[in-house]
Amino acid sequence: MRRTTTTAPRVVCCLLAVSGLLTGCLGRTREADPTRNADAKEVTLTIVANAVSGGKNARGADWITNWVIPRFTEAQRAKGVAMTVRFEQNGAGDEDFKTKVALDLKTGGGADVVELDGIWLGEFAQAGQVRPLDEVVGAAEVDAWDGWRQIPDAVQGLGEFEGRRYGVPMGTDGRVLFYNKKLFAQAGLPVQWQPRSWDDLLDAAAKLKALPGVWPLQLNAGTAMGEATTMQGVLPALAGTGALVHQDGKWQGDTAHVRDVLGLYRRIHRDGLADPVLQQEANGRERSFALFAENRIGILLESDYFWRSVLDPVGGVARMADRDTAVGWALIPARRPGAGVGGQDFVSTSGGGVRVINPDTRYPRQAWEFLRFLNSAEAVKSSLAGTAQITQRQDVNDEVLAGDPVLGFIADRVLPITRYRPPLADYPKVSAALQQATADVVAGREPEQAARSYREALVKAVGEDSVAGG
Questions:
Q1: Closest CA to 438 of 294, 148, 237
Q2: Which of 159, 191, 279, 455 yields a CA-CA distance of 20 to 30 A from 74?
Q3: Residue 443: exposed, middle, or buried by beta-carbon count in 10 A (0-12, 13-18, 19+)?
Q4: From the CB of residue 70, how many other CB atoms can be counted at a distance below 10 Å?
């Protein structure tokens, strides 16, 4: 299994921005001891998640309460351990939950096992509030878990920071190009379609333009769509140029990669291939969903959520009765073959959550055993409650997604090549600046002008030393 052995620098005193609140001096005075209470026969563990029965993320809360805790405690009892697991439910907004967890960990308190949005991991790691699993639990214990073999390396990246494992991913997704086969047939395009370059994508869109009342392509842009612009637009395109938004310790500024991405947006809107008004509407993303379902958008870049929750013929928010026969899907091509990040022909971006162990847990070995249990094949399958959804485990995906061609395709073809947003505190500022840059291009500015303005905004947000290029 590939892993670096470089020891991350010890953060003794640092500042962590959490919802505008700076919390300082977070260094810990006690080193983690993986053997602490290893043979304890009476153990109490606590897990915290932003989930509550009957409310936010209710399915996850019910799963922990009704399935995980009874089965884990029973298994421990069979080993002679009197195990108590407490579930701290929380239904707060994401930022409020993040603040609560940060303050708990800062003071040496908090739950033993914590569920986090993967994009927060780097902030907590840089603040010393979470630490690599091998420090908390022990390298031998962590490396011996057979579950790692079932989690693709790219997905394991969701729980990593600076090359070290901090947690175990708890689910993910993937982005592809969805397209309308009926419109493709009308435009004389193949209904089994896989573009291999941006030119292929734009050529197909140009042919769709001949269809009356149809917008050929939807690549999210502008500030009104918020993070959807970045995740379903900029980041996949940037990966297609061979770059990540944050690499070698710096954010992409006015670089050739960013200019190429903005150039793609310029070509799309200069040639009338996408609706510029849609990108400025407060409900533009939802409107794009409806237009696709109404056979009025030909190609749309989205996550698997679009297939399973938006277009679903029974319960979707933009139901498409003939979804299963009318909708095609394809990998997102790099700018040209081999030009994608890592020399890839195709690219994608993903999100997801991660579970970590509190460095101050009294029971590190037992907390790791609990974390392994939460991510076992049996537990992950149970968490789905009979639904078809992409998980972190390939063996579970192979079983539960066998009847769903799109989700199976994403699990098999997309997860091995995907990339994740950088889990850093400055990312939201960078994302906002990228959204504005695309808005500028859609409004008619040249890519070079938009890239310069983007860099200026980025320097103000993160500092010149943190910005690459230009």
A1: 237
A2: 159
A3: middle
A4: 11
Mean pLDDT of each 10-residue bin along the chain, 470 residues long: 36 36 40 80 96 93 97 97 96 92 93 96 94 96 97 94 95 96 98 98 98 97 96 98 96 98 97 94 94 98 96 96 98 98 97 96 97 98 93 96 95 96 94 98 97 97 91
Q: Which residues of 257-331 form beta strands (DSSP E)?
A: 297-303, 327-330
User: Which residues sit opposite 178 in a β-bridge?
Assistant: 300, 329
Phi, psi of 230 (to 5 degrees): -70, -45
Phi, psi of 26 (to 5 degrees): -105, 10
Task: Mention every residue, 6+ apart, whose C-beta is less than 8 A from residue 220.
Answer: 228, 229, 232, 233, 279, 284, 285, 288, 301
For residue 400, the model assigns a pLDDT of 95
Say how far apart CA 16 and CA 22 lie, in whole Å. 6
Q: What is the DSSP letter of 38?
A: T
End-to-end CA distance of the chain: 38
Output the pLDDT for position 37.
82
Q: What is 191-217 written as a DSSP string?
A: SS----SHHHHHHHHHHHTTSTT-EEE
Residues with Cβ within 8 Å of 39's Cβ and at least 6 positions away in sequence, in order, are: none
- Backbone torsion region of residue 294, taken as left when φ is above 0, otherwise alpha when ψ lies between -120 and 50, otherwise beta: alpha
Cβ of 223: how many Cβ atoms within 10 Å?
A: 15
Question: Percent of the chain at pLDDT above 90?
Answer: 88
Write phi, then psi, for 350 (nearest 5 degrees): -140, 160
Mean pLDDT rounded to a whole number for the chain:
92
Nearest to 329 by CA among 404, 395, 389, 264: 404
**pLDDT per residue over 41-98, tens digit each?**
999 999 999 999 999 999 999 999 999 999 999 999 999 999 999 999 998 889 999 9
The tally of CA atoms less than 13 A away on the side-chain side of residue 125 is 28
Which letter, b or e, does each residue of 164-197 get, where b requires 16 or more Cβ atoms within 10 Å of its Cβ? bbbbbbbbbbbbbbbbbbbbbebbebeeebebeb
- Give dist(CA 310, CA 7) in Å, integer: 44
Question: How buried is 402 (Cβ within 10 angstroms: 0-12 exposed, 13-18 middle, 19+ buried)?
Answer: exposed
Cα(374)–Cα(68) distance, integer angstroms? 7
Q: What is the 3-state secondary structure (H, E, C) of 145-181?
A: CHHHHHCCHHHHHHHEECCEECEEEEEECCEEEEEEH
- Which residue type sits at 90? N
Question: Per residue in 128-154, pLDDT tens?
Answer: 999 999 999 999 999 999 999 999 999
Query: For residue 92, what pLDDT is reported?
Result: 87
